[in-house]
């Protein structure tokens, strides 16, 4: 065990406490789980040169303190939605962006909502199976609602970068990077 403690690959730690998301080991664990949320504790332990029990304790501590959630997410690109649009929204007078966001967040086609400063109050991203679904959403949820004063619809033409893609090996899976 003494050799393990002196190993140059051993994960660095700070003195912030094991339940802190700022702890170096916790950050390394989180990075690995962001790449693969189903990665076994034994594999994480091997990569970080610590015991499996340490990984289990760290992950459980982060989860218990609501600092880490491991969830399944759908990747809109991987599920091959054919229509993607960003919508800049100005909320109506007397309505808060939070109210409009709360109304839109339950729609599964809305995959991104950001309260912004500047020209718009909210920016949302919508994915759908076809142009008719986009038109229907705009008609039902945007243009006929009293809580929205104005909306600029920006249909996506080509996605050049999305750092939130869930695919880690895009080219290795046999799909072209520019499909």
Task: Tell me about this structure.
With 179 residues, this protein is an alpha+beta fold. The radius of gyration is 22 Å and the shape is elongated. Strand 2 (110-115) and strand 3 form a beta hairpin. Helix 3 (41-48) packs across helix 4 (52-64). It is 32% helix and 17% strand. It has a 4-stranded antiparallel β-sheet, covered by helices on one side. The protein has 2 domains: 2-64, Arc Repressor Mutant, subunit A, CATH 1.10.10.10; 83-155, Lrp/AsnC effector binding domain/regulation of amino acid metabolism (RAM) domain (Alpha-Beta Plaits). The protein has 6 helices and 4 strands. Mean pLDDT is 79; it is low at 1-16 and 166-179. The protein starts with a helix and ends in a 24-residue tail after the last strand.
- Rounded average pLDDT: 79
Q: What is the rounded distance between the termini?
A: 49 Å
The run of helices and strands is HHHHEHEEHE
Question: Which runs of at least 5 residues are low in confidence (pLDDT < 50)?
Answer: 1-16, 166-179
Q: Indicate the CATH topology of the largest domain.
A: Alpha-Beta Plaits
How much helix is in the residues? 25-40%
Number of domains: 2
What does the main sheet amount to?
4 strands, antiparallel
**Residues in β-strands, percent:** 15-25%
Q: Total helix count? A: 6
* CATH architecture level-2 label of the largest domain: 2-Layer Sandwich
CATH superfamily of the largest domain: Lrp/AsnC effector binding domain/regulation of amino acid metabolism (RAM) domain
Widest beta sheet: strand line-up: 2-3-1-4
The top level CATH class name of the largest domain = Alpha Beta
How many runs of DSSP E, i.e. beta strands?
Answer: 4
Structural class: alpha+beta
Shape: elongated
